Amino acid sequence: MKLLLAPAAAAGVLGSFLLPLSRPPAAAAPQDPVVQDPAAQDPAAQDPAAQDPAAQDPAVQDPAQGMREAMERVKKFTQPGKHHELLRRFVGEWNTESRLMMSGQATPAEKGTATFSWLMDGRWLQSEATGSMMGMAFRGFSLLGYDNFKQSYVLTTVQSMDTAMNHAEGDLDPGGEALLLYGTLDEYTTGEHDKMVKYVWRFRSADEMVLEVHDLPIGERHTQVIEVVYRRK
User: Fold this and answer.
1) What does 196-215 look like in DSSP terms, one character per residue?
2) Is residue 153 packed enough to be buried (19+ CB in 10 Å), middle (13-18) or exposed (0-12)?
3) Whole-model pTM?
4) Sign for the pseudo-dihedral over CA of 11, 15, 16, 17
5) pLDDT single digits (tens) 3-13
């Protein structure tokens, strides 16, 4: 144990070596109390691992185990699940009838075809459609899937009648009979940007479904502007 000496005591110790041995030794100076270090009584302070939570983490001690655990945690975001099963009902070849809707009134149907197939099996669907709209040839392409992290169905579409790429996200209705997605589009005929749009897929049966496109800024009524009926070939 180290003793702390006052300056006078230190001088006395040095003098005992310099003066004759016959001289009575100087009286010992009182010792200062030893200050206890609180850390010395703390087991955690004596154990560096106890102060560092990472040192107690098995993933840090075994990087390979940590990687396996991380991969297991992210599996729910990377693997197809029950929501992807819905996409299978789209797969196949379809005949289509397209109509424009204005104030609740439909234009005559224009016929076409559509094919849904897997771009990536069980994950992403691609759709190619051909036909006519307002008497002009039409071709469209779309991607449809389910994003586990967003917890939403996601849709991206392009077509031959303009240069826009449109996106939408949504989910099934509680009954599982309709898929509702919301997105935006630019209305270049009026100069409007980012108009809110709703897409509704209604599943009438295994061999018939209907796509509705709703222009939401119209108001509460007569928002539907496009209807496409799909009947399996």
Assistant:
1) EEEEEEEEEETTEEEEEEEE
2) buried
3) 0.70
4) positive
5) 333 334 333 43
